[in-house]
Amino acid sequence: MTENEKVPWYEVLQRIDRRIIYLIVLALCSVPFFIPIPVAMEVSPPVQSLFDKIEQIAEQNKSGKEQFVLLAMDWSPSVKAENEPQTAAIIEHMFRKNVRFIILSFYLPEGPRMTETLAEELAKKYDKRYGVDWVNIGYKQVDLPAYLSFIRDMYSIIEKDYRGTPIRDVPMMKKVGSLRDVSLVFEATGSAGYGIWVIYAQPEIRTLEVGVGVTAIVGPSIRPFIDSRQIIGMLEGLSGAAQYEQLLKTRGNATRGMGSQNLAHLWIIVTMALGNIGYFLSKRRERNRKKEVA
Amino acid sequence: MHASYSMLVLLFIFSVPIVYFILAARKGKQIYIRPIAGLAAIDEAIGRATEMGRPVLYSTGLSGLDIVGLCSVAILSHVAKLTAKYDLRLIVPVNSYLLYPVVEESVREAYADEGKLDLFRADDIVYVPGQFPYAAASVGIMHREKVAANFFFGYFAAESLILAEAGSQVGAIQVAGAEDILQIPFFITTCDYVIIGEEYYAATAYLTREPTMLGSLVGQDMGKLTITILVILLTLFGILSVAFPNTFYSNWIIELLRL
Amino acid sequence: METSELLKRRARIELIVVLILGTAICVYIAADCIRYGVKEGFDGFLNRLGVGIAAICTLLIYSFLYRENPFYRLLEHILIGLSVGYSTGVVWTELLKPNWFDKLVGAEGRIPNLLWLLVLVPGVLWYFQLSRKNVWLSRILIMFFMGTGAGLGFRGVFQNLLAERGQITQSFKSILTYSGGSVSFTWFNFDNLLFIVIMLCVLSYFFFSFRHEKNPVLRGSSRLGRYFLMICFGTIFGTTVQGRMSLFIDRLTFLFHDWLGL
Amino acid sequence: MRRYIIIWLTFIGGLYYFLEFVLPAESRMSDAVTEIGKVTLVIGGCSFLLGVINLMRMHTARIALKRPGWYNSVALIVALFAMLIVHLWKFYANAQPGDAIDKVYDLLWNYLRVPIDSTIFSLLAFYIVSAAYRSFRIKSGEAAIMMLAALIVMLGQIPLGQKITLWLKSLETDPQLWWVSRLRFDTVREWLMAVWNGAAQRGILFGALIGSMALSLRIWLSLERGSFFDKRL
Q1: Which of A24, B15, B50, D87 could covalently link to B86 via disulfide, CB atoms 3.0 to 4.6 Å apart?
Q2: One domain for residues A57 and A194
Q3: Between A and D, how many CB-CB pairs are < 8 A?
Q4: C26-37, pLDDT tens digit by residue?
Q5: pTM surpassing 0.90?
């Protein structure tokens, strides 16, 4: 196709320069920072059942023996965009309902560190104190054998909390005998970290339920575990966190982010359509040209 | 928590065929593995590359010295034999320093087997650490060398999208295979053929005719057959226990599994 | 000749744009730091300077989308250095010091227990990976850990399949519902039947040692299985779009909200 | 001789945990789990210097030979030791949140590590848009099905997409047309995810679990011994 022959419009459709596409993504994602876009969403069942589980723990704590929540924070800065709002929503809900929780990670040192800053920010809003309302054990590098010993006796491999104070001296830990006092493990992860809690911990401790906050790409592979109730609740990417914030009636980062998600998704659907229209038309033109030649 | 009887029985049912078929295959018993469509696509891609006379790129992704990486090396030696036979240049970017010597040795051996050792260029086996530097380097090679065919076999993470999309822009014919299914959707949109999940190991067994892998695959098929039968029985007994409540007072299979 | 002229012109334009943008950003950061410095003292100044540096790093990395450039490569190497430095430091402070060194030297009143020195014997084997001659020594440790991993793998597989809420035990789905003496086929049962059919077809796709010519049922079910797999991959593509977009939106929130204060 | 040592060590490594799982509780096998856990944890931890040594070997060579981009290696080494030293200094000085060293640590962490890490990863948002635009072509029936599923999932997960079909929700109570209200984007997405995708994922999961069990068996019994893996390993 020599330069001077006018390029048919549907060829142009398929060859818009990469950088123009990127500029439009940048523009569309920036719009909701200035113009509000509707962000109300329908709450999906996995998000609702995780919300109900924490409500149920709060009710039980009023009457029976206090149950705690374990936050397994296996996420790193590269996936903080999705896991951080999820963790913030869960922590806010627990602070509201006076449910006490333990933060730790067996995979990544970064997770507990970033969760601690979240907890301290939210603690100011609900005047909660470290050591009394939540404990951060930080990162413990653990292989499977050590993990099994953790399930059977929590204090076997936990010596100190992340600030260095011996674990026995932390006021809240006096009420936590073993993993049997934990009735929900909330695992926030960018990869398939939920496996060890679902496969190894739950069969040993019947009362333990597992909820996960995962990046959107991992969401679909969690569904068989939700079907078998090995996992009772899931926050799937930013929309999962936004739905949870909607249940809490707060307007956090996730809800703000959904405005940009709206326009970004619509733009991707438009580009897919453009690409395919151009593709079909140019294929039909080729068939016509072949018919003329034949 | 210790194994319940049903777990012990299932462990027995799964393990025996695997060990039996591995040992049988070792003794030379002929094992049938159905042809994997993806492998025909490899030959077609190499044919296309010889027509165009352009180099071929084979990426092992982020795989290290583990089962996934070694299977990728097995498929690589098959591809290397083909490129040697048709005098094509083969470029292999590798991400793991542990896998790098294994890759180099396998390609050199393949070129030697075809008697084309003079064609083998050691600096075509490129070592690039880091996830995104690896993707950027491979994309650079695709554009500079105008590669005719791309092969992606091994463990891929988020950078699969960058590699496959750049490859389809260069107009190369692409075949991919990954055991981890999270990246398969991106390979499907950009490649001509994709080997999915377990097929990845079947492709290695089909190519290398390795007795351990062949026997293990047949043994695993028996395990999958057991699960299929178990699920069908579970459903059947479920229907019977509802349709004829007096004879089948409960779903026997469930009680059996709970022993 | 003509293209090199074009290239030179383009390079000049790029340089001018980069200079203008660069000075504008630096001026804004300087003003911002001074403003906070006055208002909140040195802490505020340091904080805003940090936010300014983070914003510059973010913009430099996004310049990679326009064209490959040395800044992107530099920041990538800094990231690798920071993460390896951090993880090395953390393994010492979180794992080796409390679980090994403290017990060895008997910190906090515990009696020193020299037995822990024996742990170094296998521990050192890792480093034979670097030596050419006796790499096999490091292979002992790798294979031992693979062995323990394999041993534990059995527990993992069977507890996942057959535990009280296992994948097989929960694959029992009622196809007919019995209510008040009558048997009915509700929407719930339809979903269950559909679930089992799709699951078995997808599982049949991964059968490798059966001849498709001999058993047509398998040929049909595995072809169906591949179509069902496509639906599964479609859902993964759909959710990944949302996942990747939120990564960029999070950076935009940082730039607009934290840095520019909009 | 070396091979037999490795084979037996692998077998013994796996044997304890295999028996601990298989034998019933009375076998008192699992009492030692906590002790063994502590020792294996430390042995595993001892390998932590490997990463640093490999990086240093590669990058000091690049600096010595003045290869192109050697200044990047200098930056890498400086960043590595900066983070390591600050981390250890903060630990041993037992710094409280207000101290100077803690501020330097926050500067390195919040304003260098986190932004670079999350920004590099966010480049993927642009690549997925260009992949959707330039490569996601409906070339075959399979691609058409995949595209349809992707569209439903995408529209069902964003507020605007859900709003398109939200008006159907009013029909929920209507005796005849109640099922029409189930055809909203978000309910169809949930149905697609839970049933179609869930079933396919469980099918894949069964295959993967049996595959991992076969792999465990082969490694534990060193059945890989005769295969080409062993020559390579």
Answers
A1: B50
A2: yes
A3: 159
A4: 898 888 888 888
A5: no
